[in-house]
Structure formats: C-alpha cells, structure tokens
C-alpha cells in the first residue's frame, strides 16, 4: 500500500480525481498548472486521502479528497532537499528571500532529516509561482532526539539570520508542533494531530 503523510505532495492526472464538483473558480483556473495536491493532517478513511489545493494567494486554500488509486507520483518535503531542487529554479525565482536562504539553511541543517513545505516547497515541486517576497520559509524536521528550549532558540537564531522568517515544524509520527512555539513557551504548547490539536507540557514525549 502506498504510504502518504501530512505535507506530502501528490501529483494526479486531472481535476476529475478530486471528490466533489464545488471547486472555487481560482482552483479550476490555477490547479491544472500543477495537478498537485498537499496531504492534509487528517485521518485517511476508506482509502480517501485528505488533501488541499493551493492557489497563488495566501487565502486560496481548498480542502478536498482523492482516492489512493489516483496518485501518480509522491514528492515529499525531504525529496526536495535531497535533490536540492532550488538549483533548478529560474534566476529570478532564486532571488526571493525564502528561496535565496535555502543553500545557507541547508548547510546549518546538513545533519538533520528535514524538508521544505509551504508555498516554497510547492513551488520547488511544481515550478508554479506560489512563493512571494513576503513568504516565510516553512520547514519540517523529523528529529532523532529532543532539544532543550535553549538549544531550540539557538537553532532558530541561526536559521533566521538570512532575512526571512523560518517556521520549523517538528514532526513526530503524524503529529507536528512549532519549534518556535516550543522555544518560547512558558507552559503548554499546541501539538497538531490527525484528529484535533491538543495542548501538552512536553511535545517530545
């Protein structure tokens, strides 16, 4: 069985693979350029995978489902880093702050199992221009060990020295939490799960 996880990008053949016919106008205009959906953090039921369509504007997000058999290709955030896909972009796209920072971020995280998500990851995978001058650099990281809050602050300080805000999400199984929120928390922090977000004292447990 094909295994997919939240943040994975799935390429499909056409709009017909999406459940329902109530797509917003922007989706029917933009989506055929990429034919790529993003796996949402939600349960997979009856082989129906929860996915989202991403538009070129921040507010353009649409939640839907596809059948597992509709998947033609899976691109993980980690694949984008392994293949250094940012080198394949045009020179003008490489000048965007969030993309320009990637080679330096890669040096800092060279011993980490990390990937690129969000608008930058989507553009790296599809070449559709979804990243902007104001885009954050959204990253995911599957850790082998936990970090203290001081270690987390030190890592974030190094990552945020390139003129773009780096949002690093720590992935534990199907759950995820913000390293920045953890580093700055005084009590509980939010962990996203396949069901509902929960508040925990120690997200590493």
TrEMBL record:
Keywords: Nucleotidyltransferase, Transferase. Residues 94-203 form the Phosphoribosyl-dephospho-CoA transferase MdcG C-terminal domain. GO terms for molecular function: nucleotidyltransferase activity. Residues 6-77 form the Phosphoribosyl-dephospho-CoA transferase MdcG N-terminal domain. This is Malonate decarboxylase holo-ACP synthase. It comes from Companilactobacillus crustorum.
